[in-house]
């Protein structure tokens, strides 16, 4: 059985994206990958793989550039089977200290960049009646209680809402959609990721293994039933479970007030 797929991976010059690209190529897949610096991406991958690897220089906030990149990937490989919208970088700072421009950069990177890719790939996937889109959010996009990461959390929460809607719209077309919530990853980066920084001093300093995280994405792409919500890392899993338990407790505690605003059924009162 031929399991080779054509992958389009954004923000792939470092971290999880770079690890994923290398692993995909090692496993025989074809990969188009974007970075703000395509030459640096080629150097980082460290291999000449003509016919199987296409590095692309793209600013994801530029919709025209994204469309050109998607068209180039489809032309080079004959289509696109799997899209991975990468994580990007976070803007740290208390919400009342961040400028409007700083907040907009966070949304341009994480939300509008993802939307640009989706707009470019969906017509192709719709025509082929299949495909798989992975949108990388963050555990901070599920639980926003980390001080000084509000801009990043807000953008990643937006990615979650966008992705859940995309999943509902894409399912009748045979297109699978997965929303990924990584926790802290041990990426060897000179600057800690938002997830790692938010976990500092909370027992998860080492972080998860990015190689295992990349393989988890590949496994999910090959699974018969794709997950809509995929939490990566013990810290991510535990934090999500704690958030869910907290919401359940508040639902129970405030149920009477929550449901009290409904209109009374006058027919029942008359009876």
TrEMBL record:
Keywords: Oxidoreductase. GO terms for molecular function: oxidoreductase activity. The keyword Oxidoreductase applies. Coiled coil: none annotated. The keyword RNA-binding does not apply. InterPro entries: NAD(P)-bd_dom_sf, Sc_DH/Rdtase_CS, SDR_fam, SDR_oxidoreductase. Belongs to the short-chain dehydrogenases/reductases (SDR) family. This is Short chain dehydrogenase family protein 53. It comes from Achromobacter arsenitoxydans SY8.
């Amino acid at each position: 059985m031929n399991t080779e797929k054509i992958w389009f991976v954004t923000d792939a010059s470092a971290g999880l994206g770079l690890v994923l690209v290398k692993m995909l190529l090692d496993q025989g897949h074809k990969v188009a990958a974007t970075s703000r610096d395509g030459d640096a991406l080629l150097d980082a991958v460290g291999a000449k793989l003509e016919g199987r690897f296409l590095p692309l220089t793209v600013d994801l906030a530029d919709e025209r550039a994204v469309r050109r990149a998607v068209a180039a990937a489809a032309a080079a490989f004959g289509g696109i089977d799997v899209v991975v919208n990468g994580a990007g970088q976070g803007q740290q700072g208390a919400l009342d200290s961040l400028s409007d421009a700083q907040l907009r950069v966070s949304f341009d990177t994480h939300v509008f960049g993802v939307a640009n890719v989706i707009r470019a790939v969906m017509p192709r996937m719709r025509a082929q009646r299949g495909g798989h889109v992975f949108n990388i959010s963050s555990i901070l996009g599920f639980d926003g209680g980390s001080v000084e990461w509000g801009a990043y959390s807000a953008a990643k929460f937006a990615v979650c809402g966008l992705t859940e809607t995309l999943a509902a719209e894409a399912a009748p077309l045979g297109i699978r959609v997965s929303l990924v919530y990584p926790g802290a990853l041990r990426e060897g980066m000179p600057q800690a990721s938002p997830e790692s920084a938010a976990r500092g001093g909370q027992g998860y300093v080492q972080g998860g293994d990015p190689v295992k995280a990349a393989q988890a994405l590949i496994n999910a792409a090959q699974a018969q039933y794709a997950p809509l919500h995929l939490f990566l890392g013990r810290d991510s899993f535990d934090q999500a479970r704690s958030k869910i338990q907290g919401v359940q407790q508040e639902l129970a505690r405030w149920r009477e007030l929550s449901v009290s605003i409904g209109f009374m059924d006058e027919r029942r009162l008359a009876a």
